[in-house]
Amino acid sequence: MTIRIGLIGAGIMGADHARILSQQIAGASLQFICDADQSRARKVADETGAAHVSADPFAVISDKQVDAVLIASPDATHAPLSKACIKAGKPVLCEKPLSQNVPECLDVLASEAKAGKRLLQIGFMRRFDPAYVEMKAALTSGKLGAPLMMHNFHRNVSAPANFTGQMAITNSAPHEFDIARFVLDAEYESILVFRPRLADPNKVGAPVFMVLKTLGGQLVNVEINNNASYGYDVRGELVGEKGSVFLRSPVASEMHVDLQTVTTYPADWRPRFAEAYRLQNSAWLKSIESGKPVGASAWDGYAATLIADAAVKSLESGAPVKVFPVAKPDLY
Ligand code: ISE
Q: N or C terminus of the chain: which is more exposed, having fewer CB within 10 Å?
């Protein structure tokens, strides 16, 4: 079975998804590459053999030649475009975050409730990353004992080009919020956010340090440092009563020279999470065939945005902020 995909957004991630779908996995054909910038859409279409380009995402979503949609356009478009896909009854893989505000997430949940089935998968690709998968498996095997703490570090070379305002919290941190919640299988109670004194609060992507409590009493700390300079570096450690699991990033080789061992960092997230993206997209296609949803749901997208929203408030007030989620709909 070949699934005809409409891909919306031909920026860094859109181009990467197009490459993965056309070159790394079977079962997809790229029907449309859609972007407001037509030359960008055309370039990605030419590189990946996509059939058409478009500048109108809603026309792509409703096009009869499109079976499923992948959304990789700017954050503010995620919720409205996801809603349009759900309304059209089309499976959709949408990049994170689902939205930068809670009411929009609730709106998407209401759309899926109306559709009566899960159509939306959120691109929290770390759930497919072999290192995090092993971490979660170690916990569920019982070898670590009860989980106590999870440490998370998220460093970019420099704040991504599209960054504004509090996107360290609303765009980068959702990865950490989601993966800790997924690994621990826990819901959050509250969050407290700090900023180191030397950091210029006006600098886009200024570092934040957050401490979260889960309803089960585990502690999760998250450092987001979008201007770390030296490389793209995601670290994590899960600490249980009887042991811990530390993430290893994929490294192909190490150089021994001048009395040193040298390994390199990637410049951004694509090489670090290449396997996660490939596995995620492949699982998405299989889930469309089987009708059995996989990966992060709209509910998981809501949970990440809810805690991000609390984090922004905590940064402003300097006090811990509790979250009060709505009742979880039966669909999830
Ligand atoms: C970007 O949107 C991503 O998803 C990357 O994984 C993350 O590292 C980066 O900080 C985000 O801006």
A: N
- How many beta carbons lie within 10 A of that of residue 106, not counting itself? 17
Q: What are the pLDDT digits (tens) for 83-97? A: 999 999 999 999 999
The H or E element spanning position 171 is none
Per-residue pLDDT of 291-318, as tens digits, reads 999 999 999 999 999 999 999 999 999 9
Q: Tokens 């509250």 map to which residue?
A: 190
Among residues 156, 191, 167, 176, which one has the least CA distance to residue 222? 176
Pocket of ligand 1 from Cβ distances under 6 Å: 156, 160, 171-172, 175, 269
**Burial of residue 252 (number of CB atoms within 10 Å: 0-12, 13-18, 19+):** exposed
Q: Which residue has the higher pLDDT, 146 or 161?
A: 146
Contact 188, 305 (CB under 8 A): no
Going by the DSSP 8-state scheme, the letter that residue 328 receives in this structure is P
Q: Whose CA is nearest to atom 6 of ligand 1?
A: 269
CA angle 250, 256, 260 (to 5 degrees): 100
* pLDDT, tens only, 189-239: 999 999 999 878 888 999 999 999 999 999 999 999 999 999 999 999 999
Residue 111: DSSP 8-state: H
Categorise residue 89: left if φ over 0, alpha if ψ from -120 to 50, beta otherwise.
left
CA angle in degrees (0–180, nearest 5) for 137-309-216: 40
Question: Token match 């690994």: residue?
Answer: 183
> Which run of H or E residues covers position 231?
none
Pocket test for ligand 1, best of 175, 177, 227 (most atoms within 8 A of CB): 175
Q: Which of 269, 270, 273, 275 to mutate to test the pocket of ligand 1 (most atoms within 8 A of CB)?
A: 269
3 state DSSP class of 113: helix
